[in-house]
Design a protein that fits this description.
Blueprint lengths: L1 E4 L10 H13 L7 E4 L9 H9 L2 E8 L5 E9 L2 E5 L1 H4 L15 H12 L4 E5 L10 H6 L3 E3 L18 E3 L7 E6 L11 H5 L7 H18 L11 H13 L2 E4 H8 L2 H5 L4 E8 L9 H8 L5 E7 L7 H5 L4 E4 L7 H6 L1 H20 L2
Parallel strand pairs: 1-2, 1-11, 5-6, 6-9, 9-10, 11-12, 12-13
Antiparallel strand pairs: 3-4, 4-5, 7-8
Helix pairs in contact: 1-14
């Protein structure tokens, strides 16, 4: 029997490549392991997106110092895939770079520096993965790194910080970009409103209810001045509104990060003839159905059963949407109660054990 292992990264615990290796280890530890195991780590625009594409294409990395989300220097990298630069915005502007979350002041300027460097290096196609952000600035920082100016009604440059956008009167565009830009997105949220960047993702970045309201108002002002029609595009709210920023300031088009990744790793070709697909996700919730890798995998599996190993999963009654989308089973990593800290520390072992449990059940059914 043949198994395809296509996990997402489990944020804060293991990357997609390590997750795939752990699952494979678990399958090989069983009395009757699969005859063939194919490791196919995936991503949907968030953590590990660039790593997966670089690994799938034998690409390379380009590294440079940039401005981190709160202004300090960070070392960032982006992938080089022949004529394409693959930038993961979290490399420069992600939560991994902050000790204290501060969405009121965090900036995507460093991501803009990566885009600027890729253009200067001669890349004519740039793919930006959206996810894992510490920011909520609507792409203002990225735009400033690309030469845009944000001015108040007196023609003065706005001070730093997302809330300064409340006083935005007009913008002065930067120079045209000599590259096609693609924003690889894993959600379908608009920029503002109840399902927008601030309301849905702001609390994860440290925003309380009052801060969410002010951030949403600031992004609404940004959209009103720059591109009102772009604010409602599904995905504009991704990565703290960087989806909006890339469309408005870099002329980007939004694509599903999961679909782009599956195409790059040749998933449709590799799943043919398989008996079972394993995928994995750190937290399974309502967002999983809205553009995350497990659903894209189920859609492309062509009827092959798909087992989703989940670090955190809701009650069975809340999984109906995933099952309707084609996921065969959701298996929590921990067989019993466990703290989040312990779960993160033991993620590789838990992945291996959960995969082994699932495989034993599947193999038993096939050998009746």
């Amino acid at each position: 029997m043949s198994v395809l292992i296509a996990p997402n990264a489990l944020r804060g615990a293991v990357g997609a490549v390590s997750a795939a290796q752990a699952i494979a280890h678990g399958l090989r530890s069983t009395p009757r392991p699969p005859d063939r195991i194919d490791l196919c780590p995936v991503a949907d625009g968030g953590d590990g997106f660039a790593e997966c594409l670089v690994a799938a294409t034998d690409g390379t990395w380009r590294r440079l110092p940039v401005r981190g989300p709160l202004g300090g220097p960070v070392e960032a990298r982006y992938g080089v895939l022949r004529d394409t630069a693959v930038i993961e915005m979290a490399e420069a502007s992600g939560l991994r770079h902050v000790r204290i979350k501060d969405p009121l002041h965090a900036s995507t300027f460093g991501t803009g520096e990566l885009v600027r460097d890729a253009i200067a290096a001669g890349f004519r196609r740039i793919v930006v993965g959206l996810g894992g952000s510490a920011t909520n600035d609507g792409g203002r920082g990225l735009a400033e790194a690309l030469g845009w100016r944000f001015l108040d009604r007196h023609g003065r440059d706005l001070p730093q910080g997302t809330l300064a956008l409340l006083d935005l009167a007009r913008v002065e565009p930067g120079p045209p970009l000599a590259a096609e830009v693609v924003a690889a997105c894993d959600v379908d949220n608009p920029l503002t409103g109840a399902s927008g960047a601030s309301a849905v993702f702001g609390p994860q970045k440290g925003a309380d209810a009052a801060a969410v309201e002010r951030l949403d108002a600031a992004l609404a002002r940004l959209a009103a001045v720059v591109a009102p029609q772009v604010a409602t595009v599904p995905g504009a709210g991704a990565a703290g509104g960087l989806g909006f920023g890339l469309m408005a300031f870099a002329g980007a088009r939004l694509e599903s990060g999961a679909e782009l990744c599956l195409q790059t790793v040749r998933f449709d070709e590799r799943v043919r003839g398989c008996d079972l697909v394993f995928t994995a996700e750190g937290r399974v919730d309502g967002q999983t159905e809205r553009g995350k890798a497990p659903v894209a995998i189920a859609r492309h599996a062509g009827g092959v059963p798909v087992v989703l190993l989940a670090g955190q999963a809701p009650a069975e009654a809340e999984l109906k949407g995933l099952y309707a989308a084609g996921v065969t089973a959701v298996i929590p990593l921990a067989p019993g109660p466990i703290t989040i800290r312990a779960s993160i520390a033991q993620t590789r072992e838990l992945l291996a054990d959960a995969a082994a449990r699932a495989w034993r059940l599947f193999a038993a059914g096939r050998h009746k």
